[in-house]
Amino acid sequence: MESFDLVVAGCGVAGLSAAVSAAEGGARVVVLERAPREERGGQSRYTEAYLRMKSETEVSDDFETHLAENGGAPHADPDLAQEVTRAPSERAAHARALSMLEPDFIGTFAAEAGPTIAWLKGMGLRFDFLPTQFLTKSQPRLLPVGGGAALVEALAARAESLGVAFRYEATALRLVQDEAGRVTGLVVREGGRQQRIAGQVVLACGGFEGNAEMLTRYLGPRSVYLRTVCKGGLFNRGEGIRMALDIGAAASGDFGSFHAEPVDPRSSIAEASVFIFPYGILVNRDGERFTDEAPGTVDAYYERVTRRIHAQQDGIAWVVLDARHMRIPNYRLGLRTDQPPIVGETILALANAIGLPPARLAATVERLNAACCPGEWRPLELDGLSTEALDPPKSNWATPLVEPPFHAYPIVASNVFTFGGLKVDAQARVLDSDGAPIPGLYAAGEILGTYWGNYTGATSVLKGMVFGRIAGVDAARRRPNA
After folding, report:
1. 88-123 as b/e, with b when 16 or more CB fall inside 10 Å?
2. Pairing verdict, β 193-203 and 170-177
3. In order of start, what are the domains of the chain with their CATH numbers?
4. pLDDT tens-digit profile of 127-145?
5. 147 with 47: CB under 8 angstroms?
6. 128 CB-contact burial (10 Å; exposed 0-12 / middle 13-18 / buried 19+)
7. What is the pTM of this model?
8. Widest Cα–Cα separation across the chain
9. Omega before 405 cis (within 30°)?
């Protein structure tokens, strides 16, 4: 049996951050990765890695507030909010392992974001406010130059230079505990054989986006209409969540929901997103509108709109645009799909090309056109140009669709990551169902149950790096003979 100070399950930014920080603290570390070496990094490899920060040292002004608003059930008992402000040991027993975010977790997240960026810069990574796919946005987005792939490769190179061992095409199966309940290792399947690897454990192996059984169990039968946002998500099959729950870990986050992003189902590329829908109308298979396409800036509302798309027949909708959208400066930034638009010189021709009922789509467009009001169309800012007496309304950028050629793109909801996962404290230690840390067990990244109903944008990658780093530091400090 091999023995290490720390066994890390997962090779995305969370697992690699844990491995590097632990190794920097003198720990002997092994990283388990289900993928082959050339595909290492999971979803982290494919993301642009937006970070909700207004500078390299400060998170956005709404960072903690937005996390708190999306960190618990919408109709929770008001007394619980007061209970979680108290130290865990002073709380009522029923409030010691709630499936919601703790103030200490949020505060630590915000406070450690800047130091984590500085730590990564020490590995040669660069960060900048680069163009995003959002033509309108409410919050700044700091990005690593080179995106998630650059993060993965820089962290992996640092880990390798520190002597961290890597086991590729290795799957973590279950946790090992001693008689006192301390986690002492992992059972791993590698090369068709099972073996036990001893050490403290960091679970950083994502959610359950790639597990059809868990998706159906938690998200319901409509999960068949979902697709992972990138191929890296197919490696996330929920074993880390399951094995922790099996030994009594506390659950957290909204198990019945996921981070939704609008993508073109015709494309095979990662994040084939279609964020240009606020400038047209969204219609379902019946050729009918079903939602306000532009309630606010696209970065703040795309997830809620995408959920409405997912609720339609067969989980699909089409955005219909006229030629005006092509005059929006840099409009292609809002179209990451590599597939061309469906084009028609008339709305009837477009409907036939899509396969929608032509008369119904024409009537839908006519109703929109009649409800539009005079005003200045300002596509790069909220212009308040809204419809009158139209249900559902359109709150911004409401202009008649009259200028050919008409374009359409199909849109489905992609599952970027699942919301339900494990509960940890501010040291990234996994808590049990009574709110006490499980000795020897940490978790970081998307496996943490953090969000309810709506994602606090540009926090997932940052969360993985921050709490991965914290987990590694704490595990190195607690290793035997440290």
Report:
1. beebeeebbbbbbbbeebbebbbebbbebbebbeee
2. unpaired
3. 2-257+419-477 (3.50.50.60), 260-414 (3.90.700.10)
4. 999 989 999 998 889 999 9
5. yes
6. exposed
7. 0.96
8. 76
9. yes
